[in-house]
Amino acid sequence: MTPAEKHAQILKSTAKRLGFDFCGIAKAEFLESEAPRLEEWLNRNYQGKMAYLANHFDKRLDPTKLVEGAKTVISLIYNYYPEKQLPHQLEDLKLAKYAYGADYHEVIRAKLTEFLEVLREEIGEINGRSFVDSAPVMERQWAQKAGLGWIGKNSLLLNRQMGSFFFLAELIIDLDAIPDTPLVKDYCGTCTACIDACPTDAIVQPEVIDASKCISYLTIELKEAIPNEFVGKMENWVFGCDICQDVCPWNRFSRPHHEPAFRPSDELANFSNKEWVEMTEETFKRVFAKSAVRRTKFAGIKRNVDFSSFKKPSS
Predict the structure, then answer these.
(1) Model confidence over 150-185: pLDDT tens digits?
(2) Of 55, 77, 194, 249, which cross-links 22 as Cys (Cβ 3.0–4.6 Å)?
(3) pTM (predicted TM-score)
(4) Pairing relationship of beta strands 128-131 and 166-173 according to DSSP bridges
């Protein structure tokens, strides 16, 4: 066994031991085919008010600019699909499934820190950085390059064994490891379920999202007033949106996660419209103390609740 093969074996076994569902390996190199796509997307202003997405263009495409001497990009999948939806979510105000429990950034970041520590213990000094939705890394493209899935029409990574209800994380390291075979086949076929279901027409073409129309963007990233053109189109989402994932046929393979930190609190599990509408800042801080929902701050969540509370367009 060559050193690169042994390293790949260590990476896969460590990922499994830390609870990651899949681990894929890709060579750290410039994402040449993605450059024109990213440039066009930005030129069309599909990033909305997320000006930071136009920054660090080269770093988004070249991992060696994030980690000096980078040789390998490790892509990791971590399941967050809940055992059941929050009981009031079917008819009342809703938040995305990934936000039911603790903030995934903190949960997964701790695992990535441990991952690097294990590698240094077993292999030796390694220069590397970990990422979980926290830096200019094109995570879905790297995951596809590492053979973990393909990019669906909703622009999310789809995995044949578990759909799309998972987080992606990366380690970029200066260690040689045998890369996995990229997945080049598109298993979506002629299905357009996600495009047809999006109430704001955010999916402008397969794999291309106008983020400025996406409910997740409108309820999380947008810091100003939600434009009136979306009145009656939010379908009661107050933080994030799962519509394009809920209708995806591949998510019939989703299975409940095993991460205790992602389980909702009893108080959140009983949140109905009444609790959302009457929520005070004190309640917000208590219920969402460790949640990704904190990103909106109390004023943001109140804005979303007011906007999404069963409003219909005027006739």
Answers:
(1) 999 999 999 999 999 999 999 999 999 999 999 999
(2) 77
(3) 0.94
(4) antiparallel
